[in-house]
Design brief:
The chain is an alpha/beta fold and 260 residues long. 51% of the residues lie in helices and 9% in strands. The protein contains twelve helices and five strands. Strands 2-1-3-5-4 form a five-stranded mixed beta sheet, sandwiched between helices. Helix 3 crosses helix 4 and helix 3 packs across helix 5. The protein starts with 11 loop residues before the first helix and ends with a strand. The relative contact order is 0.13.
């Protein structure tokens, strides 16, 4: 069956045991989005609502959402359940309302981790994205109208192209076709030279998509072809630009630009 293996397995929704390659701070899981304590409280609230049949429409929707996402191995399908778990968890704190200090202290402890992650996430996004930085370099250093080989069908992972009148040549990135049967393959660098591409651009988002262990297990031949393709870049082309987000503490993917 067709699976978005880059999102991990069923336990990813709860345990946060796999890093989604194209995520900035990997907050798709319950623990990543809510924190351990709020997450546990939310699950307890869900269990309480289901056993007591209180707020059962909300509880049933949240439970079915989590189960469906786990069954399909698509973590983002679980996202609608997270705020509902928060509401159900808060309901368990109702007896503490008689003790204002205890209630306030408990809320402060529960909110500390998700609040910290929200602040860090917004601080990260306030910095210039690597795709903008790379796009500025391209505007200053690449000839107008240059032919670029890049992930044409996944443009948001590429550098910002700006006003440059570039000709685009597509690098395939999918692991499978829409029918879930035919697997795509990476093409050799000679193909892009024959397409008159002068430069080739790759990024860590798509590398992570192709080279993570889950994808390799599900689509071994496709991933092997991309592994060979990425390995050939420094051997058969000239790297003219590189930016890594961790070195600059920027949002966005790592980006490499090669001259063919």
């Amino acid at each position: 069956p067709l699976k978005l293996t880059t999102e991990g397995g069923p336990l990813t929704i709860l345990l946060h045991n796999y890093v989604v390659p194209h995520e900035e701070m990997t907050t798709r899981s319950l623990w990543g989005a809510m924190g351990w304590l709020p997450g546990v409280l939310g699950l307890l609230g869900l269990a309480s609502a289901l056993t007591r049949r209180s707020h059962w429409p909300i509880a049933l929707f949240a439970a079915l959402t989590l189960l469906t996402a786990a069954r399909l191995n698509i973590v983002r399908y679980a996202l609608p359940a997270f705020p509902l778990l928060g509401l159900l968890g808060v309901g368990l704190l109702a007896p503490l309302l008689r003790f204002r200090f205890a209630f306030a202290l408990t809320c402060a402890i529960l909110l500390a981790q998700p609040l910290w992650k929200a602040v860090e996430y917004n601080r990260l996004l306030s910095r210039e994205d690597t795709r903008v930085t790379a796009g500025r370099w391209m505007a200053a250093n690449l000839p107008n109208g240059a032919a670029l080989a890049l992930y044409k069908n996944h443009l948001w992972s590429n550098p910002f192209l700006g006003p440059g009148n570039y000709t685009l040549v597509n690098i395939p990135f999918v692991l499978y076709s829409s029918d879930g049967i035919r697997e795509d393959r990476a093409r050799p660098l000679q193909y892009y030279r024959e397409q008159r591409a002068g430069y080739l651009i790759v990024n860590s988002y798509m590398m992570g998509h192709h080279l993570n262990p889950a994808s390799k297990a599900a689509y071994p031949e496709t991933c092997q072809s991309f592994e060979q393709f990425y390995a050939s870049l420094d051997r058969e082309a000239v790297r003219v630009y590189e930016i890594k987000k961790n070195e600059r503490n920027q949002p966005g993917p790592d980006i490499w630009i090669y001259k063919l």
